[in-house]
Structure formats: C-alpha cells, structure tokens
Design brief:
This protein is mainly α. It has a domain at 67-128. The chain is built from 33 helices and no strands. The longest helix is centred in the first third of the chain and has 42 residues, at 2-43.
C-alpha cells in the first residue's frame, strides 16, 4: 500500500513539473509574440494571422481498471507481498492453500449476500447512485408467470445474458400470442446453444471463477447437451432454416458433446447444399475423436471436413489449426501423430496462420508422451516463442505453461529449460495465461520439485523464500522433496524454518513428513563444537515436543480418524531428541506414554532413544525411572537389555530390592561387579 501511495505521489509531482514547464514555455512564447508585435508596429507592416489546424485525436477506449493498472505498473510485481485481495493484516493473510481459498471465497460470498439483499429488497434501493445510472447498481427485474412482457424485454435479457429469464419471457410471449421476429429468435437460439439453457456465473465473481475453473476443466468430457429443450424447439419450428440456424445448433451440440445430432445436422446441410462458416467446421474438428473410434478413420474425417471447407471457399483460421491438432492428440502411436502434426503446422504456416499457445500445448501432448521416446520439441518451441507476449486466443492457451513445466520435470528433467519457461510466464502480461488456481498450483509444484532435486540447496532456497508463501504454498509431496534435499545436503540449520512452515501450511498431520523430519534431526546430531549448531540441540527437542503435542491433540479430537497418536518409532525419536537436550521432564513424559500405552501403540521405539533416556536418568540420579526403562526393554525383547542393565548397575548405588529386580529382568550377569586384573589372577 505504501508503494502505491509513493507511485501516486511520483505521478502527481511529475504532472506538476510538466505543468510548470508548460507554463514557462507558454510565457516565453507570449513574450516572443509581444516582441514581434512591437517590431512590426515600428515598421508599420502587419503579418497575416496564421491558420492553425486543430487535430482531434482518436478516442481511446478505456476500461474501468486502466488507471489502476497504470499505477500498478509503476510499482511492479512484489512476490513477497500478499495478494491485494487479502486484507493487509498479519492475522488475515492466509498461509495455507485451504485458507487462501476460504478467505477469498468468503469475501466474495459477502458480495453475493449484498447482491441478494439488494435484489430481495429492491424497493429500498431506488435512490440513484450515479447519473447516468449504472445498471450494475440497479436491482434486476423479476419475472413470473403473470408478468406482462414485450419483445423489448426479451431483447434486454438476451443482451444481459440472463438465460433462464429469457426462456421464461419467450414462453410468456408465445402464450400471449405476441409475435417474435426471426432476428430475435436467432439471437435467442444462439444464446441457448452457447450456454445450454443455463445461467452463467456473473463476470464480477472473479474468485469463484478462479477456484472453480480448475475443477470444471478436470471433469470428464461427457454429453451435457439438454435434449428436446427450447433450442431444439426453436430450430425445428423454423419454416425456412438458414445457414446461421444450422451453425448455432451444430456449434452448441458440439460444445456440449451431443456429437451424433451435431454430425447428423452437418450431413443434412451437405445434402441440402447449405454452406456453413469456419467456426462451425472447427467445432466438428474438435469432436472428431468422438465420432470415429479407429485412428485412421479420425484422420480421414479431418481430411473430409477440410475438403468440404475448401469446396465452400472457406479460409481456415487458428481454430481450425487447433481443432486438427486436438484430434491428432487422440491418435495412438508415435510416428503417425508426429507426422500429421508437422504436416499440419507446415500447411498453416504457408497460409500465414501463426500458432497460439494452445497449438504448442497440443504439440507437447503429441511429442512428449508418457511412455514414448524422449522428445526435445520444447526446446524448439521455446526458441520460437521466447521473449514474446501473448493474449488469449483459445481456451486451451491456459494449458501451455503447466504442461511445459510438466515436460521439463518429468520428461526432460531439465532445470535450465524450466527457468526459461518460468521467465516466459513472467514476460509482460503472460501470467494472465496461467489459467486458474489449480493450474497455478500444478505449475509451481512441478517447478519446485524439479529445482529441489537438481539445484544446489542455497540456490533453491532463494527461489523458495521469494515465492513462499504468498505466491505458492508447497504441497506435501513438494515439501517431502525439499526435506530430502535438506537431508542430502545435511543442512540441518534449515530444519527449524521448515518446521515453522509446515505448521503454517497445515502439514503437521502428514505422518510421512513428520517422520522424515524426525529422521533428519535424529541422524544429523548437531556438533557441540560449532557455535551455530550448539543451540540446535535444544531447538530440535522443542520441535519434537511440538510434533508430539500436535499429534496427541489430533488423536483426542472429537472427529479424530485415529486414537493412537504417534507410532512407536516416532515416539522413540522424540524421546531421543529430548534426552539429547537434557530435558528430563519432557523425556519422562514421552517415556511414560510409551510405558503405559505400549499395548495400543503401533510399533516399537528404536533402542537408541531408550539408551539415551537411561543416560539422562543417570545424569539426574533417578534409578527408579531407569529401572522402569529397563523393564520396558526386557518386556519388549530388546537384545541390548543386558547391556542397559549392566550400565544401570555400574552407574548407581542400588539397594537389594533394585538389584533383585535387575536380576529378574536381565539375569545375574548384569549385576556382577567388575574384577580388576589382580583379582582375576
């Protein structure tokens, strides 16, 4: 926010300086003109007035956010700051993926509630907010079966894309015997075919689109076209069906995967000699894989459609190219799809049609298949498009970046190419083509997982600190890769930071992550000789204690899925870390848990933790607790029990009761006194 005010101040100062400079030039021109006038007055000659031509510049269309975008451009992108949609308050800035979605949608739900209140109490909102009135501030008209409507009402509903109300008003017009013109019927038909008789989500609800679009895109492609509804009724009720009627129906049915009826209507146009437009043929190309099962017949169908387009004198466009490439992606094998794709690109290049990001996305799908040979086509694509800025031209444009990063990680394992892709994403306004929240998350998942396994740790952590948590929050799988990189580089000084992030990101319930972090702390014991590592022993103990408390709270929660808490091996690691730090109270609490609930705890702790706990008991002079630990080891069949019993016997002054307990647990060998060399002789 401070940066924004500074930018506004700079613009204001710049504008003031510009005005002052303009004033100086204007005054100078006035003085010059007065000198000229005086000089001409002395000679008596008068110069004819110069004719100045006024040129009015062409009006530039401005959007409602153009000024804000200009101000934002002066500040630049700051990845360390939270998104502007979140409140600038530490307690209201989300630090997990779930909270990001919850906070954003909660704020948008408030806007929806305000819209609902305004709509339900329209009579209370009759005051004018602006002149001329802004339609977005005015409550919408409510229609029912008794409403008196005219064709103008239907026209307004079509223009405002209110599908359900448009259907109701048309039925009312038909019921009241009011004639609807052919042009208005055509507009209604196109509206119904495009939206499939359903209202769309208003454009103002950006966050819901951002979080919902990823779910919609992952749904299985299936027929959702509503058969025998008003669209088909309108079409079949037309006395003379023209080209635009067939185009609307075919494109609508193809869009919602009613492929049989769409193809039947296309065959009907061929028989009747009705010409279609290019976009209608493109929609047929997109459903070619649903019409034909065998790969050869799919390509033959593409050739058939393209031949018909040529006969009708239609010029292909970008949609045609992408429709063909999408069909090629459904063709199996390796050689034929690649050959078809390269031929298609070459022909469209001769026509002067430049591929979009969707075209390159299809090329990646064709060349970089999961079980196919390795292809370096992404290098060629990047050489072609690197440094360029793109705008949305096809809905599949948003699939390019996430697919390219997937190829870099899983197909090529090339971190340098991944950095080039990431640089292209942040070129100009290209980030608008990331798609939605799901694609953004998948993109950074691939990027972080690749860098975590290929980059030096220090270099990777620079990227990590730059983007986490405001731009990206690592998923558990990515966090596991990061922890393994820390383990491989023995960078134990990063453990406290990563644990704090795991707490923020709600990863503490992931047993595999907690177990891995415990393993790192146990196997990489900080050296007491190094000052920076000396305090890590205590910090590791605090982390382990925090882990145990969190898992215990989760096990005792009302809706807990498990009631056992930590398994035995993890409890042993917590015991070991607490004992290393010399925290007798915490270590005793962990051991008490192990001892009392050993029948319900899954697994057994490692002997290292128990042995370290006995050493801690020796340091704190508590032989009774040490004997309890010996009893636990004996009951669970640890082979090292004899050594632990002997260590207890040699470290304490025990009474007869305690000695007899050691004998009963591990045998008399553990309580035999050591003999010196002379005694043995």
């Amino acid at each position: 926010m401070n940066n924004l005010w500074k930018s506004m101040y700079r613009l204001r100062v710049h504008s003031r300086n510009h005005t002052l400079a303009y004033g100086k030039v204007f005054s100078a021109s006035q003085s010059t003109s007065s000198q000229l006038a005086s000089s001409t007055g002395e000679t008596g000659a008068t110069a004819p007035p110069a004719k100045e031509k006024i040129v009015i510049p062409t009006r530039i269309e401005r959007g409602p956010t153009d000024i804000l975008m200009a101000l934002s451009a002066t500040v630049g992108f700051d990845p360390t700051a939270p998104h502007y949609k979140y409140h600038d308050d530490p307690y209201l800035i989300p630090t997990s993926n779930a909270n990001k979605k919850t906070y954003a949608l909660a704020q948008e739900a408030g806007r929806k509630a305000a819209h609902w209140i305004r709509q339900e109490n329209a009579k209370l909102f009759r005051h004018m907010e602006a002149d001329p009135p802004v339609q977005a501030f005015v409550p919408t008209m409510v229609y029912n079966e008794e409403s008196q409507v005219e064709t103008t009402d239907l026209q307004q509903l079509i223009d405002s894309v209110e599908v359900k109300d448009a259907i109701l008003v048309y039925n009312l017009l038909k019921k009241n015997g009011i004639e609807v013109g052919d042009e208005l019927k055509q507009q209604l038909l196109e509206l119904l075919c495009f939206y499939n008789h359903e209202d769309t989500l208003p454009e103002q609800f950006i966050e819901e689109r951002w979080f919902r679009q990823g779910t919609v895109g992952r749904e299985r492609q299936r027929k959702t076209w509503k058969d025998f509804e008003l669209a088909e009724e309108l079409f079949h009720g037309l006395e003379s069906k023209r080209s635009e009627h067939y185009c609307a129906m075919i494109r609508g049915m193809a869009r919602f995967f009613q492929v049989e009826k769409a193809w039947a209507l296309y065959q009907e146009t061929v028989e009747k000699g009705i010409e279609l437009d290019t976009n209608t043929f493109n929609s047929l190309l997109h459903i070619a894989s649903f019409l034909k099962e065998s790969y050869d017949k799919r390509w033959d169908l593409v050739c058939e459609v393209m031949t018909t387009m040529k006969q009708q004198g239609l010029r292909p466009n970008l949609g045609t190219l992408n429709g063909i490439l999408q069909t090629v992606t459904t063709i199996g094998g390796y050689n034929h799809p690649r050959t078809y794709a390269l031929k298609t690109l070459a022909e469209f290049k001769q026509l002067g049609i430049e591929p979009s990001l969707a075209s390159w996305y299809y090329m990646l799908v064709i060349f970089c298949r999961e079980r196919g040979p390795v292809s370096h086509v992404l290098h060629d694509i990047m050489n072609e498009i690197e440094g360029k800025e793109f705008t949305i031209q096809d809905p599949k444009d948003t699939f390019f970046f996430v697919t390219a990063m997937d190829v870099c990680r899983n197909h090529l394992h090339d971190k340098e190419l991944a950095k080039r892709v990431n640089q292209l994403l942040h070129q100009g306004e290209n980030y608008n083509l990331i798609g939605d929240s799901y694609k953004e998350s998948i993109y950074y998942r691939h990027y972080f997982a690749l860098l975590a396994t290929t980059e030096p740790l220090d270099s990777f952590l620079e990227t990590y600190h730059l983007l986490v948590p405001n731009v990206y929050i690592p998923e558990p799988s990515v966090m596991e890769d990061i922890l393994r990189s820390v383990e491989m580089n023995t960078a134990i000084e990063q453990v406290p930071l990563l644990w704090s992030h795991m707490v923020q990101f709600d990863h503490t319930g992931r047993e595999n992550l907690v177990s891995l972090l415990l393993h790192i702390m146990v196997t990489n014991q900080p050296s007491a000789d190094e000052p920076k590592h000396a305090e890590l022993v205590q910090r590791f103990a605090n982390i382990a204690w925090d882990m145990w408390n969190r898992m215990e709270e989760r096990a005792t929660a009302p809706r807990a899925t498990t009631t056992t808490g930590m398994p035995g091996p993890m409890l042993g690691d917590v015991l070991l870390l607490c004992a290393r730090a010399g925290d007798y109270e915490k270590a005793t609490a962990v051991f008490t848990k192990l001892s009392k609930e050993q029948n319900s705890i899954v697994g057994e702790p490692r002997i290292d933790g128990l042995r370290e706990f006995v050493n801690l008991c020796v340091a704190n002079r508590t032989p009774s607790v040490a004997l309890q630990c010996l009893q636990y080891c004996s009951e669970n069949g640890y082979p090292e029990s004899v050594d632990i019993g002997r260590h207890i016997f040699n470290s304490f002054t025990l009474d007869q009761t305690q000695l007899s307990k050691i004998r009963s647990l591990v045998g008399a060998e553990a309580v035999k006194p050591k003999q010196n060399a002379a005694g043995s002789e």
